[in-house]
Design a protein that fits this description.
A hairpin with a 2-residue loop joins strand 3 and strand 4 (about 60). The chain is α+β, with helices and mostly antiparallel strands and about 450 residues long. The protein has 3 domains: about 5-55 and about 215-285 and about 390-435, 3-Layer(bba) Sandwich (FAD/NAD(P)-binding domain); about 95-205, no CATH class; about 290-385, Alpha-Beta Complex (Polyamine Oxidase, Chain A, domain 2), CATH 3.90.660. The strands form 6 sheets. A 6-stranded mixed sheet has the order 10-2-1-14-21-20, with helices on one face. The chain is about 40% helix and about 20% strand. The protein has helices at about 5-10, 20-35, 75-80, 85-90, 110-120, 130-145, 155, 165-180, 185-195, 215, 220-230, 265-270, 275-285, 325-330, 340-345, 350-365, 415-435; strands at about 15-20, 35-40, 55, 60, 70, 90-95, 95-100, 105, 205-210, 230-235, 240-245, 250, 255, 260, 290-295, 305-310, 320-325, 335-340, 375-385, 395-400, 400-405. Helix 12 packs antiparallel against helix 13.
Length: about 450
Amino acid sequence: MDRDAHELARRLMRLAVIGGGWAGLAAAVEATSRGHAVTLYEMSSRLGGRARRVESGGLSLDNGQHILIGAYTKTLDLMKRVGVDAERLLWRTPLCIAFADGGTFVLPPGASAIAFSRGVLARDGWRWSDRFALLRMAAAWALRGFRCAEHLTVAQLTAALPAQVRAELVDPLCVAALNTPASLASASVFLRVLRDALFAGPGSAELLLPRVDLSALWPDTAAAWLAQAGTSLHLGHRAAQLQTSNAGWQVDGEAYDAVVLAASPAEAARLALPTAPAWSACAQALHHEPITTIILRSESSRLPRPMLALHASATAPAQFVFDLGQLRDIDGALAFVISGASNWVERGAHETVQATLAQARGALGPYLREPLTVLRIFTEKRATFLCTPGLERPCARIAQGLHAAGDYVAGPYPATIEGAVRSGVGAVHALESARGHGRASGVD
């Protein structure tokens, strides 16, 4: 072996990735791209984690509705790397918060500040004083660098805005971005998301709505790419034990130089407990919130837009509805999304379904055809963490040669696909840096 080949072999890692959700897949793709020998363990028989396909009654549905935005640059980059045609599989549209009963905010193309101002001034149904109040507050946020006191909630941050502006723009944006109601959501994280999405340049706030099921969107293609690249994929394998060894780590007795722990917070805490009890306790302490998705069918119905906001209340559960007929060619299928669904989970499935049916008929009546029936109910009980002020999230580094990845790991973003993907990529880079060799290949 010549000197250069020996040096390259010394720098490359034998890497285990535990968890095959979007964070784990991102880590595996990034590490494989950079020349490392990767083994991926996933306890389920299907990759994708909380954003995956579920077969139901002959239909390919999702276990929950997800959207992407133009600012998800790392996710889009990895999709392109494995051969996903994002322009074909994602419905790209300007940011639009539209209600079925009227009232639409659309962010037009152009420079961010000008586009936001145009969108606010063109928003129908608001008084001119309401529009100017929002523009003044947004300008004040920009002057402060989109920073605020860490203890503030979104509701406190925006308390001076007119009630209608809060109800019809702030609250839907907050729930969509943070999966947390404005009364509980961190204002500092909310402002960071607004900065990087609405005010980061043309296209960053565009909605990217999947035209295919979530597994087909990326996990399936990523898995095929990994297999072709020689990555070892172990599906249906729950890692039982993670322990240190003289040369690095062992996963169920198999030796590795380093490990990316990309499992759920509960699984990661279990595996990390013997090595890092404090980190494990922090991961265990996260307060999770369920998201319920109820898919109704109204044959041959069509909503005015593929995605509509809904007025949620104590009797109306859902905040958004997606027309899967327009997005996925599933005739008459409507996905109603209930974020922060713990109260409705406690009420039970029957009451939640009946309330959603009543909400659908009340808000969307002119667009529906009876009978309105239930296709499927999905509840991810640990779908997301509550993104509250001052939330302590577990750090990425657990121990030498062991890094966590997932949307719950400490970082600038809430629980999103982009946050998960960035954490997976970041874990690989951090492990490389800790070994002191920088980049293993020419891939950024």
